[in-house]
Amino acid sequence: MKIYVKITLWVCFILCLNSLLYSQNTNQGEIHGNIQIDAQTYQADSTINAPKVPEKMLLNSYANLVYTRGKFTAGLRYEAYMNTLLGFDARYNGTGIPYKYITYTDDNLEVTAGNFYEQFGMGLVLRTYEEKAIGYDNAFEGVRVKFMPFKGLTVKGLTGKQRNFFELGPGIVRGADADLALNDVVGFLQNSSTIINLGGSFVSKYQPDKDPLYKLPENVGAWASRLQIMRGGWSLYTEYANKINDPSADNRYIYKDGQALLVNLGYTTKGFGWILNAKRVDNMSFRSDRNATIMQLNINYIPIFTRTFTYTLLNKYPYATQANGEIGGGTELLYKFKKGTMLGGEYGTNLSLNYNRLHSLKKNNPTDTNAIGIAGTLGYQSPFFEVGDELYYENITAEINKKFSKTFTANFIYQYFAYNFDVLRGMTGHGMVYGHVGVIDAIYRFNDNHALHLDAEMLFTKQDKGNWAMLTAEYSIAPSWFFSVSDQMNYQNPESNEINHFYLGSIAFAKGGSRLQIGYGRQPEGVMCIGGVCRNVPASNGVMVSLSSTF
Amino acid sequence: MKTFINIAFVLLTLGLGAQNAQFSIPSVELKTVDGKKFNTSEIKNNGKPIIIDFWATWCKPCVMELNAIADKYSDWQKETGVVLYAISIDDAKSMSRVAPFVNAKGWEYVVLLDPNSDFKRAMNVINVPHTFIIDGKGNIVEQHTTYAEGDENKMYEVIKRLVENKE
Question: Is A27 exposed, middle or buried (0-12, 13-18, 19+ CB in 10 A)?
């Protein structure tokens, strides 16, 4: 098997090379792709709990190649983990070509054989995607057909198994989705300023029942419907999903149905935006292996509506999707104080105010004789509009972005948060973490190419690891060079009297579609989350090299 | 060891690829912020240059870059007729935030939604921000990843050269 993979690989590379050399000629088609290599050395460092790594150096890498000729596209991705960087699932260790496909595209038809990513609506019943930074990839391997019989209607049908590291999961997934732009179809709406979009999906998975104890459903169906209405700056999007009973490791083998409702309401006009989100998720974990956990073999995706930040200390306690049950919502106001007004100054000032709150579901005994959550029963009853007592997460965030002059811009953020450590990290005994975060991020331009970026962040909390402060200075020379140094300090830690410093220095060089970064320093343990899906990042100390290129 | 040979091989093809400017825009179905379907094969500008900029509302350098261009965009348009397509890779989590965000910033770009990164994948983009400059014939003449203050000026030099060479 391994030899087969290697031979395929070499043949492919040789073909690629050939095609590249001749791709000036359009008749030969085009070859493009990308590559990313991340490597890090690891030193044991007892002061920050960085473990000893026997390999001394670890590496994650991949390369994509896409060949296009006329109506055909073929692509593949080679991945090598020698071994996985600390914090990634060790089941990725090794090499392989887990992603390969051929697609035929015509005006109203698209057929894909091989691996593919797909999303129905917001993803409540089906979404496959990849997020390399957290090691997430649940791609399908199978076939997919997209058909556009007339303008405004897109119908998709697919069947496949899902990627499970370098293998496929045991379950077979079948899905269909229709997306209708009503304005393209209904006569009197064609010139209307009201836009109406409708959609519906059905997904079913098959996995044999080999359980000695329970009689488990071998086919589990789920459906979703969605509606979008937009008019004069207003927009409403809503999606509702339902799933039949699906006992699994996630819900501890209860036989309850699942459901989820998302509502987004918004209004926007020049210089102003307002968003309101509400969600209710109940027993909606949906995987193509009922025994899978964490990031494995998810068929669906439950979006979270808390804001994503790129600032380190705002990411210490991030919210994570609770597919088993959550209820809550959030709102955000965006406003631009116009140029020439008192608050707007010479260039205008941007303001964002944001609030989110999420709770557990209200759960009652399923019957008079059964307690909540017992395997083999209906699990619990949950009144739709009632909110549970347990707070999962709350935040208030204010952000001001201001350009003071042609050379000076700054960003100010304040956040209050309440974070249910036990629920969101799947642990016990930590309780709630309450904290305040402040960020000042300023950029000064010396001239057309040279700029200095200073970023000061503080996090205050009495719980968990206590207070943090961080200072980063980055000097950039457009378009290629970035020099950065930072220190993250953990002080007033309830568990230790010492101040822990996490120094980090790095140089990055960017040219065209390529970027090379070399850094050295310490990283504290924590979580890294993208889209509400998180991976643990252990503490480390060492040299990091990162190379990426698009060609 | 084999891995390293393989990687070296890819790097070699990479070096060769860098000289190859031929790059047509792949066809992917996206949506506009007004809720209308939009196929990326419709990205056109009457023979004038195009910028395709992959970004996200949560990506700080992306927003810095688009803010910096926004200050000069009307001048750029007057002088060269360039159009900027801002492809948001915000997924279901923050997709509903894109339209209000763009309006509050006052950006005048053509904003498209790529919620499952289909177009990003088709263009082999790894991280945002990533910009492509496309000439009047639809070929990619330049691309750039990351943003440093002042990058927008370099970008505009390329666009001006494209327009001048044509005349």
Answer: exposed
Ramachandran quadrant class, A205 (left: phi over 0; alpha: psi -120 to 50; beta: rest) = beta
In the predicted model, is pLDDT for residue A40 greater than 70? yes
Could you tell me which CATH number the domain at B22-166 has?
Answer: 3.40.30.10
Query: What tens digit of pLDDT does each residue of B77-91 get?
Result: 999 999 999 999 999
Question: CB of A151 within 8 A of CB of A268?
Answer: no
Q: Which of A115, A118, A102, A116 is nearest to A29 (CA)?
A: A102
Cβ distance of A23 and B130 shorter than 8 Å: no
Task: Among A30, A309, A335, select the one facing B23 at the smallest CB separation.
Answer: A30
CB contact under 8 A, A195 and B35: yes
Burial state string for A447-468 with b = 16 or more CB within 10 A and e = fewer than 16: eebbbebebebbbebeebbbbb
> Which residue of chain B is at minimal alpha-carbon distance from A129?
B116
Contact A13 B10 (CB under 8 A): yes
Burial classification of residue B4, based on how many CB atoms lie within 10 Å of its CB (0-12 exposed, 13-18 middle, 19 or more buried): exposed
How distant is the Cα of B28 from the closest Cα of chain A, in angstroms?
Answer: 10
Cβ contact (<8 Å) for A228 and B99?
no
Which tens digits make up the pLDDT trace of A44-91? 999 899 999 999 999 999 999 999 999 999 999 999 999 999 999 999
| Predicted complex ipTM | 0.92
pLDDT, averaged across chain A: 93
β-strands B50-55, B83-88 pairing: parallel
Give residue-wise pLDDT tens across range B90-109.
999 999 999 999 999 999 99
- Find the residue in B nearest to A106 (Cα): B27
> Omega of the bond prior to B129 within 30 degrees of 0, cis?
yes
Q: Measure the CA–CA gap between B42 and B38, rounded to whole angstroms.
A: 7
User: Which chain A positions have a beta carbon within 8 Å of B24's beta carbon?
Assistant: 30, 68
Q: What is the pLDDT of residue A251?
A: 95
Nearest Cβ partner of B148 from A16, A409, A479?
A479
Say yes or no for a CB contact (<8 Å) between A24 and B3. no
Residue A54 has a CB neighbour count (10 Å cut-off) of 7
pTM (2 d.p.): 0.92
- Probe site for chain B from A34, A182, A346 (most B CB atoms < 10 A): A34
Of all residues in chain B, the one with the smallest CA distance to A263 is B96
Q: What is the tens place of the pLDDT at every residue in B8-28?
A: 445 444 444 444 456 788 999
pLDDT band at A494 (very low <50, low <70, confident <90, very high): confident
Position B14 scores a pLDDT of 47
CA–CA distance from A134 to each of A527, A536, B1 (Å)? Answer: 10, 9, 26
3-state secondary structure A195-240: EEEEEEEEEEEECCCCCCCCCCCCEEEEEEEEEEEEECCEEEEEEE
CB pair distance less than 8 Å for B144 and A479:
yes
Asked if B27 lies within 8 A of A105 by C-beta distance, the reply is yes
Q: If pLDDT is split at 50, 70 and 90, which confidence band does B113 have?
A: very high
Identity at A231, one-letter amino acid code: R
CB atoms within 10 A of CB A406: 10
Instruction: State chain B's mean pLDDT as an integer.
Output: 88
